[in-house]
Recover the amino acids of this structure.
């Protein structure tokens, strides 16, 4: 009888210990993988040289983890080390998730969108206005970024860039510059000749910058490119309004709401394609892949003229008479939109 009771007691104790162990596992799992004291997103910095213990202590003091011991245990499972950088810890992040972020170096990033058709000056303004970047957009004696210190329009590839929060503005410019260099080198390796009378990459990008500024519609770009190529082949001036705007704004490229008037077309500048033959001396904007492709693969047309249609696109014409009719329609639209400006007699 005594032996039987003893056996039963051992069995009960064994079951009790198993349930206790299961309970502890459940508690640890809840604390490590589910529970989180993080009520709102928090920026947390891990400095170069920080130890796991130092990071765990700061996380605990800021009430971002259930305990410093729990974090250190999670980090040990994750590999035993943390990566330096700025982290954005989201609300509801558990110890396990935070440990994973810091162990893998999943730092906070920011999205920088450089639109197609902006000038270097406009891009620098855009980067200055991004609060998630640091530093200046200009080089100094202490910051020499090589080619980035002497950027010209056409050197930057407009795109969406994801960089670590706190990245320097010069580093973003360098990233966009290197991407354009890669695009250029890829084309040069094809050993293709650009459409006549263009002579090389610089001419391609210069014409592409005019196409880029003339139309936001990618479906029109190849047609616009064909117009300018046709005019160049016939020895006609390009008469491209964006080149005049570039000259009028000293390379900024934006008249900030002011209309382009007839008198503006007489500005004395090598960039004024109403007064000078051929292409302007250099690109007037930074171009994307659609504009580059439009110049390299233009539409097969005989168009020599185009003018805005008031709907975001353009009307194209083979002859001057048709162009005059299209232009008259556009002038009427401008008068309706700007009744206080005399477009007919303005000098």
């Amino acid at each position: 009888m005594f032996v039987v009771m003893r056996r039963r007691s051992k069995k009960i104790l064994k079951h009790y210990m198993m349930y206790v162990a299961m309970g502890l596992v459940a508690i640890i799992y809840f604390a490590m993988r589910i529970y989180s004291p993080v009520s709102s997103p928090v920026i947390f910095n891990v400095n170069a040289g920080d130890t796991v213990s130092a990071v765990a202590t700061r996380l605990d003091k800021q009430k971002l983890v259930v305990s410093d011991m729990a974090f250190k245990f999670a980090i040990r499972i994750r590999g035993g080390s943390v990566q330096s950088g700025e982290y954005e810890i989201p609300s509801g992040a558990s110890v396990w998730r935070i440990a994973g972020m810091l162990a893998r170096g999943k730092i906070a990033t920011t999205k920088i969108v450089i639109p197609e058709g902006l000038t270097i000056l406009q891009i620098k303004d855009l980067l200055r206005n991004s609060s998630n970047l640091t530093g200046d957009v200009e080089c100094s004696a202490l910051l020499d970024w090589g080619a980035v210190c002497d950027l010209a329009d056409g050197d930057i590839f407009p795109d969406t860039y994801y960089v670590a929060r706190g990245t320097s503005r010069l580093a973003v410019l360098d990233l966009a510059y290197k991407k354009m260099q890669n695009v250029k080198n890829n084309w040069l390796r094809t050993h293709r000749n650009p459409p006549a009378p263009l002579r090389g990459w610089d001419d391609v990008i210069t014409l592409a910058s005019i196409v880029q500024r003339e139309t936001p519609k990618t479906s029109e770009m190849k047609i616009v490119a064909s117009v300018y190529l046709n005019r160049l082949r016939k020895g006609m001036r390009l008469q491209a309004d964006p080149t005049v705007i570039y000259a009028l704004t000293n390379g900024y490229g934006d008249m900030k709401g002011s209309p382009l008037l007839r008198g503006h077309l007489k500005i004395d500048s090598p960039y004024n394609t109403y007064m000078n033959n051929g292409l302007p001396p250099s690109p007037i904007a930074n171009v994307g892949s659609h504009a580059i492709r439009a110049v390299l693969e233009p539409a097969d047309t005989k168009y020599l003229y185009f003018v805005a249609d008031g709907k975001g696109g353009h009307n194209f014409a083979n002859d001057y008479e048709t162009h005059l009719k299209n232009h008259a329609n556009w002038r009427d639209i401008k008068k309706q939109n700007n009744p206080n400006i005399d477009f007919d007699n303005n000098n």
User: Anything to note?
Assistant: The beta strands are 42-46, 85-89, 109-113, 160-164, 305-308, 314-317. The radius of gyration is 32 Å. Residues 23-27 have pLDDT under 50 and may be disordered. Residues 43 and 201 are 45 Å apart (CA to CA).
